[in-house]
Amino acid sequence: MVRAAVLPAVGAPLEITEIDLPAPGPGQVRVRLAAAGVCHSDLSLSDGTLRQPVPAVLGHEGAGTVTAVGEGVHEVTPGDRVVLNWAPACADCHFCGLAEPWLCTDAAAGAGTPYATLRRDGSPLYPALGTAVFAEETVVRANAVLPLPDGVPLAEAALLGCAVLTGYGAVHHSARVRPGESVAVFGAGGVGLATLQAARIAGARTIVAVDVSPEKEKLARAAGATEFLLASKDTARTVRELTGGHGADVAIECAGRADAIRTAWSSTRRGGRTTVVGIGGRDQQVAFSALELFHFGRSLSGCVYGNSDPAKDLPAVAAHVRAGRFDLSGMVTARTGLDGIAEAFSAMLAGRGGRTLVIFPG
Fold it and tell me: Which pTM value belongs to this model?
């Protein structure tokens, strides 16, 4: 018996209930969760912005300890500490062949297959994004677990599974920030705070954080922001003023809103790079004129999971954590149990705080 947060239907409130989790089958791993981060993508799954079969156990950013492995699993053994990977690459598809595992066509396959049942009536449950970490335990494909390097606290390591790899990758792989460049980060939630830290590690000179909430300033500056702006109609002009009148070399949008994407673009200098990390809805339309696309010569790119290869990037980020360059605990502004996930969703909608960690009993 396992307690879990179940989404019974798109748009419905989460239910904290008991589920039955089978033993791991061939190629599968069972993990006892230590903690799970509450990410905006979980909210997007619950409201239908991202598609997910239901009923489903939500949660995709987690870390824990392997308790059992199925036949043919040799990468991990019971007792190993692991981070969950919600986008495991197959290594066989077209995109994996291009060395772009973040675009793997098989990465989301696990989300469409029932993996557990509701205890009360035996109905099948789906694992959100293939991981289902809003539960005391989960069963996933073997390639969905990554060994956690030594020296990283297990609970805070949950953040490595999404927010940190996304923000770190957006800076180092997508935008490719160079030492001395200026960076503007739009949105100072979990991913935004990770992005700010990654920009500082990359050697950015001026780092401007933009958010709708004034309470984010302290968090943003602690993460590496040298300037903080409350989002307004004058944001792009102010970013240009703070960057020598030219605009930021790099703008990274982490909010997933059309107005923020447009402002990030307008805040970037001629020839600069604008990277979109946030996940917006289908109705969020962004408009550009053909003339400005020519005149400004900016590049605009989407960014999936930080364009990361988690197997390679996780050890690199862990080294920064051990060296004190990357602060995981500073991203966490609330800790709760399963019963507190609904409040964490409300806080995200209201723009409050950084990351909420769901802590599971040891």
Answer: 0.95
Q: How do strand 116-118 and strand 268-276 relate by DSSP bridges?
A: unpaired
CA 329 to chain centre: 16
Strand, helix or coil at 330? helix
Residue with tokens 């390097």: 149
3 state DSSP class of 90:
coil
Percentage helix, strand, coil for the chain under 3-state DSSP, each rounded to 5: 35, 25, 40
Residue 150 DSSP one-character state: T
Give 111-121 pLDDT, tens digit per residue: 999 999 999 99
Q: What residues contact residue 319 under an 8 Å CB cut-off, 6+ apart?
A: 149
- 182 phi/psi in degrees, rounded to 5: -100, 145
Q: Name beta bridge partners: 141.
A: 28
Token reading at 192? 């935004």
CA atoms within 13 A on the CB side of 57: 37
Asked whether residue 318 carries a pLDDT value surpassing 90, the answer given is: yes
Residue 344's pLDDT band, with cuts at 50, 70 and 90, is very high
Residue 291 has a pLDDT of: 95
pLDDT at 362 over 90: no
Evaluated on CA atoms 41, 282, 94, 300, the torsion sign reads negative
- Using alpha carbons, select from 166, 85, 91, 89 the residue that is nearest to residue 130: 85
Peptide bond into 53 cis (omega under 30): no
CA separation for the pair 361, 4 (Å, rounded): 13
The two three-digit tokens of residue 32, written as one number = 């006892």
Residue whose tokens read 């990554």: 146
Q: Whats the size of the chain, residue-wise?
A: 362
pLDDT of 349 over the 90 cut: no
Average predicted confidence (pLDDT) for the chain: 96
Q: How confident is the model at residue 351 (pLDDT cuts 50, 70, 90)?
A: confident
Q: What are phi and psi of 298, to 5 degrees?
A: -80, 155
Return phi, psi of residue 295, to 5°.
Answer: -65, -45
